[in-house]
Amino acid sequence: MTPEDAIICLCTSQNFGPRHQQNLIELCQGQPIQWDLVFATADQHQVSPLVYANLSSIDNGELTIPPDVLHRFKKAQIHNIFVKKRTRVILEQVLAWFAQKGIEVMLVKGEALNQLVYEQPWYLISYDVDLVMRVKHEDLTKNDSREMWKFLERFNRERNDFKEHIEYDYFEHHDITMNNILPVDWTRIWAEAQTVRIEGNDVFVMTPEDMLLAAAINSCRKRFFRLKSLCDIVSIIEKYPNLDWQTVINRAHAYKCNTILYTALVVTQNTLGCHLPDGIVTDLKINPLRVSLIHYLVHHLSQRLSLSNLFVQSENATFKRTLNWPLLLTYATYRVDLFWPKLGELYAAWRNPPPSVPGPQFITKDSQNDQPVYPGDRCLDADPG
User: Fold this and answer.
1) What is the pLDDT of residues 22-53, one digit of tens each?
2) How far from chain centre, in Å, is Cα 183?
3) How confident is the model at residue 321 (pLDDT cuts 50, 70, 90)?
4) SS (H, E, C) 188-236
5) At what angle do helices 227-239 and 258-271 cross, to 10 degrees?
6) pLDDT (tens digit, 9 = 90+) per residue, 264-307?
7) pLDDT tens digit string along 141-177?
8) How confident is the model at residue 348 (pLDDT cuts 50, 70, 90)?
9) Residue 258 vs residues 49, 286, 301, 340: alpha-carbon distances, Å
10) Buried b (16+ CB within 10 A) or exposed e, 2-22
11) Global pTM value
């Protein structure tokens, strides 16, 4: 790990105390630092506002960060503060609309963590607000599906630098099931979900145990080394010291993501620092050879590659994603019984690539009556066979 990467990892914490400050000062005084690289990498990993907040807790005379780099850090932080404020306004409108329709909604992933885990919602940069509706797509009428789609896509079509994309799903979220590869029990998740109140509207959130599993799965989707995902994991663990680890482990087995969970915890421990419960390897029942392979790959990748090299840009299309070394670690975590479903997902992605740009481009014309056809109509009319 380079000195620049070490600075970013040290500052990617919302519990940045005197010990962290002293370690940072010693790290900066011991060698020359490429501060422009520190900003570029922190911004790439979507943690620059949090990193800047922690850097600002120390007198710059101790760190000697160039003024132009400080300006970029501050600009990124202010921009994200405005984004989160604007997102809050939009979220209130969306939740009020769903309440009027009598449809229950769950916040998942980043926005849920902003509400429950992070002291400030602007600590991390995100591009989506993820919602799950407590209704299955096939249970909606065509008119209801079309009205819902038009309402939500209105925000996405108007998206600008101060708005996040609204990503929505029915009853379950495809990211957390990894496109139906993992048998996640969403009926139980809904049954045990808690509610929080946002401007007079109730919205569901996962239990802390399910949030941790979702964060680990999301880390796997990002090939484990994206700092935003790792920060989510360590922040959940720190926020809930009484986390029921046995429940986490039992559900990891049930969802067939026990190796994914273990790998995410190992990478988080190796990168940001994360205490692993005693006996977790035994409880997760991971083959010793696989454990050795995971530790070898994590050590090898973190020692040989920089955080910038380990970063993988998210793409809407599966086959546009970069092939790089962290992909080996991702596939090393898949259980044998997941490979066939994964191959099915890859085949489906190859046969049906998604549109590159969401929004009005989804609207097409029906060849028989020259009327617009919405995505919801296609799903409702689709032959289940």
Assistant:
1) 999 998 887 889 999 999 999 999 999 999 99
2) 19
3) low
4) HHHHHCEEEEECCEEEEECCHHHHHHHHHHHHHHCCCCCHHHHHHHHHH
5) 100
6) 999 999 999 988 888 887 889 898 999 999 999 999 998 888 99
7) 888 888 888 888 887 777 666 667 888 899 999 999 9
8) low
9) 32, 8, 21, 17
10) bbbbbbbbbbbbbebeeebbe
11) 0.85
User: What is the rounded CA–CA span in Å between residue 377 and residue 368?
Assistant: 15
Cβ neighbours for 55, distance < 8 A, ≥ 6 positions apart = 11, 24, 63, 65, 73
3-state secondary structure of 276: coil
- Contact by Cβ (8 Å): 237, 197: no
The answer to whether the beta carbons of residues 230 and 267 sit under 8 Å apart is: yes
Q: How far apart are CA 33 and CA 335, in angstroms?
A: 41
**Per-residue CA distances from 109 to 70, 216, 363 (Å):** 30, 11, 28
Structure tokens at 354: 């998604």
Amino acid at 45: H
Residue 109's nearest CA partner among 57, 55, 168, 160 is 168
Nearest to 114, CA basis, from 46, 18, 58: 46
φ/ψ of 322, rounded to 5, equals: -70, 135
Torsion of CA 90, 95, 98, 100, to 10 degrees: -100
Which residues have C-beta within 8 Å of that of residue 263, sequence separation ≥ 6? Answer: 220, 224, 294, 298, 329, 332, 333
